[in-house]
Amino acid sequence: MNExxxxxxxxxxxxxxxxxxxxxxxxxxxAITQPEHLAAxxxxxxxxxxxxxxxxxxxxxxxxxxxxxxxxxxxxxxxxLRWELExxxxxxxLLTFSHTFSDRHGAASFTTGWxxxxxxxxxxxxxxxxxxxxxxxxxxxxxxxxxxxxxPVTVDGDTLRLERQLTRPADTVWHHLHGDxxxxxxxxxxxxxxxxxxxxxxxxxxxxxxxxxDTPGGTVRWELAxxxxxxxxxxxxxxxxxxxxVAWRVRVEDLASELLSLTx
Length: 264
Fold this sequence. Notes:
Blueprint (H helix, E strand, L loop, with lengths): L2 E5 L5 E9 L3 H9 L1 H4 L8 E3 L2 E3 L6 E7 L3 E6 L2 E10 L3 E10 L5 H20 L7 H14 L5 E4 L2 E7 L4 H7 L25 E5 L3 E6 L2 E9 L5 E8 L5 H17 L3
Helix pairs in contact: 3-4
């Protein structure tokens, strides 16, 4: 793998990936610019009309660079995709792909998705089909959390905040955490706690979305929101919990591993 993450001063993030393809740049160029080829590997249905590009869902984009067979770049809403092709030996291509976006915590999902898209592109260039494995993709996603250095924890004063993209949808995560057993006034189900955290009574519970409970120094709030890909975004805040960084980091890492072991 050859990926790196850049955080920009404006808060945006760029993921950059490089791959060597045993096909000449002209052939790869056709595969990344012509809709009939994009249909075999790109994650949306692409239509190109002049410098306008549409994707079948979500916002349209504009082609920002079109220098065959070297650079093809376009926006997708407020995101930007860039494909650079360089000759690699007599018949190969060095592909450098970059994706710039605002959702830093979605970086592992984006990278996993593009990794598999490029594998599908590779297969298409070879004349093969690509066998997508959702379980392998979920494992790769969590590997990318570590490869890209996506530490999910921030501390502001005495408040800890943890944001982590998960590999399972919110209802699955809620059920796994025994959220249906949460009752206001009672202690929270054990999976919502972490080592050394003294959990008080549940103060708020919304099925599949939110659980909040008191602690001696503040409150803990678990929120499951829409995320990238097929999984939920976990946002965990602990007021008065600035000393609990390690405990919550370990708990959420364990949760991510537990979710990988689930069968669909």
